[in-house]
Amino acid sequence: MKHFWWKLISVILILGSIIMGFLGEVPRLNILNETIRNLYFHVPLWFAMLVQMGVSCFFSLKYLSSYKLKNDLTASCAAYVGGMFALPGLITGSIWATYTWGKPWVADDPKMQGVMAAMIVYMVYYLLRALIPDMQTKARISAVYNIFAFCMTFVFIMIYPRLAPSSLHPGNGGNPAFGKYDMDNSMRAVFYPACVGWILMSFWLLNILNRYKKLQYKLEHHENLE
Amino acid sequence: MNSDRIIALLKKEFLLEFRQKTSLASILLYVLSTVFIFFLSFKSNIKPDAWGILLWIVLFFAAINAASKSFFTEGKARSLYNYTLYHPTEFVISKILYNILLLALVALCSVLCFAWLVSYPVQNSLLFFITIITGIIALASSLTLMSCIASKTGNNYSIMSLLSMPVCIPVLLLCLRLTRNAIDGLDWSVSYKYITGLCLIDVLIIGLSLFLFKYLWRE
Lengths: 226, 219
Known about the structure:
The complex is a heterodimer of chains A (226) and B (219). Chain A has 226 residues and is mainly α. In chain A, 74% of the residues lie in helices and 0% in strands. The two termini of chain A are 28 Å apart. In chain A, 41% of the residues are buried. Mean pLDDT of chain A is 83; it is low at 173-178. The radius of gyration of chain B is 18 Å and the shape is globular. The model of chain B has no long low-confidence stretch (mean pLDDT 86). Chain A binds chain B through residues 64, 113, 117-118, 120-121, 124, 127-128, 131-132, 137, 140-141, 143-145, 147-149, 151-152, 155-156, 159-160, 163-164, and chain B through 142, 145, 149, 152-153, 155, 159, 162-163, 165-167, 169-170, 173-174, 177, 193-194, 197, 200-201, 204-205, 208, 212, 215-216, 218.
């Protein structure tokens, strides 16, 4: 119980959000209609991805200050998990967009551009890791790239949409929103637990991946990863 | 940190560049031939929007070409020698300054080529100038760091463009928007927030480069 209580909480919260997400009451909004339920799945997945990207950047910083390979391993695993959450986030977004905007990908939206750039950044990060054979060099170079790329992605996702004239996303530029005015209390009661649940789930995945990679290292090198 | 040493390093870079003129010439030739292709395909009735986009595409790839050389030319032995002589901050500042000057030259040439062969639709030239300068500072400093990373992979030019493409997208988008404002001659009040955003990105990128370079440099 000491080690898995938060995993249990994560499962309960996510299950609850799926059940309540499909059965609960939602406000009737123009255009959005029932698709507003996507809020319970799409947005928490992005939050989990952002959190994992932050974790990855944090461990890269930690690696650069200590040069311990286990920190680099955690950073790369967190980047993987972030990528894992980006994909369903993208798919739920595209399904939703098909029914509200009429097509799965709209070019003129700063948030979508930002997310696409972020995904390319992390693919390049994996490519960079694959290109350098030496462990220490790989860890050092990819940590530097990770920190730089995280900062630029952060600029792109957080600051650029505020500069750009309008986003098609709900809540921007007078679009019907699940923003602060339209989300009623019954929706909040599902949305916030869903966010917590998915973020906990992402840490669980990180934990498993990290342990797996450590074991793999031990098998290959016959010593524990320092 | 010592400004004399930075100037000495800068002098060395320029000396090397002018001794083997081929690299600079090849970049300028690249710009000229690309603009010539645009001329052939658009026949000078190019839309102002497309003008800005094409200019930044030419500039971006010329910048990658130019900046990728800044670390590839340094062999292992020379890096070791530099390591004994200089502080990493001095070294990276000199590289960034050199790249800014180089890119300014490239930008000047490409704007001249565009004006000569295609057209010059810009109505607010001062805004255009500010956009180019701030954009180039951001490009030069991020590309310097990326070229150092690319040189460490021992790999080629392709990884350099791959590394820099996604991190430069926000800079390029802001520059494109500002260039469009300059072409349309919009009021300054429209552009202020973008200029501030771009300047903030400049500061952020330079700060990150200074902070991160010492980790790349150490073997």
